[in-house]
Structure formats: C-alpha cells, structure tokens
UniProtKB/TrEMBL annotation:
<protein>
    <submittedName>
        <fullName>Peroxiredoxin</fullName>
    </submittedName>
</protein>
<dbReference type="InterPro" id="IPR003718">
    <property type="entry name" value="OsmC/Ohr_fam"/>
</dbReference>
<dbReference type="InterPro" id="IPR036102">
    <property type="entry name" value="OsmC/Ohrsf"/>
</dbReference>
<dbReference type="Pfam" id="PF02566">
    <property type="entry name" value="OsmC"/>
</dbReference>
<dbReference type="InterPro" id="IPR015946">
    <property type="entry name" value="KH_dom-like_a/b"/>
</dbReference>
C-alpha cells in the first residue's frame, strides 16, 4: 500500500492513494488553513469507520442475513497535549435489515473489532474503543 501527499498551498494538501484516488486535506483557520477539506485526523477517524462498517456488512452478508443498510457514527476524544492522539472512540452503528438478530450484529461487531478491522485494532493502542448499535427493521 502506498500514498503520496503533496502540499498544495497554505495548509492544504492533496493525497493520491495507491489506487489512484485523490483526497484533499486542509488545516483549521487558526493553524493557517482555510477549512476547505477535512483535517488529517478526521480522515483517520473516517477510515476507521469505513473499515469497520465494511467488515460488519460483509460478515452479515456472508451469514446470509438480510442487511440493507449500515451507518456508523464515531465520536472521539483526543489528548489535551501533543501528540494529540485519540484517547476514546465510540462507534454507534445503525443497522437496517429484515429480521436481523441482535446476536448476529453483536458477533459481526466483535469480529470486526477483534480480528478484521486493522484501523480499529491499531487505534485501540491509544484509545479506549466502545461500540453500541441499534437495529432498524426494513
């Protein structure tokens, strides 16, 4: 896996991923940025959310559960001093489907957190990570 990050201007940067996609990043106005794009740490949090949501949907689909939607809302706290690492992250999943069993969703969340989601497993080295979920009948 590779990625190239180029300084654009001000405190704006453009990342080009190994798969050829572009992602813009910018700093906060108080740090010389213009607030035109997400901050790098926001992208890290979004990456964790994407990684675990991908796992949960795939695990449920492979288990032949009728999942039709998955949203994860992440709320994070960071250290007060540098390096301002994530210290606490809560992931709240809203999983939509037909006759989904809570046990199946709990199992998918656990497998993602403990075995498959590289981002979660990496971030748990500095952050206390918690999960919750709700089911919505399709």
């Amino acid at each position: 896996m590779e990625c190239t990050v180029r300084w654009h201007d001000g405190m704006s940067f453009i990342a080009e991923t190994g798969s050829g996609h572009l992602v813009a990043m910018d700093g906060a106005p108080d740090a010389g940025g213009r607030n035109l794009a997400p901050r790098p740490m926001e992208l890290l949090l979004a990456g964790m959310g994407g990684c675990t949501a991908f796992d949960v949907v795939l695990i449920l689909q492979r288990g032949r559960h009728a999942v039709s939607g998955c949203t994860v809302k992440l709320q994070a706290e960071r250290a007060d001093t540098d390096p301002k690492v994530f210290t606490r992250i809560n992931l709240h999943f809203t999983v939509t489907g037909k006759a989904l069993k809570p046990e199946a969703v709990e199992r998918a969340l656990k497998l993602s957190a403990e075995k498959y989601c590289s981002a979660s497993i990496m971030l748990e080295k500095t952050a206390e990570i918690s999960h919750s979920f709700e089911l919505v009948e399709a």
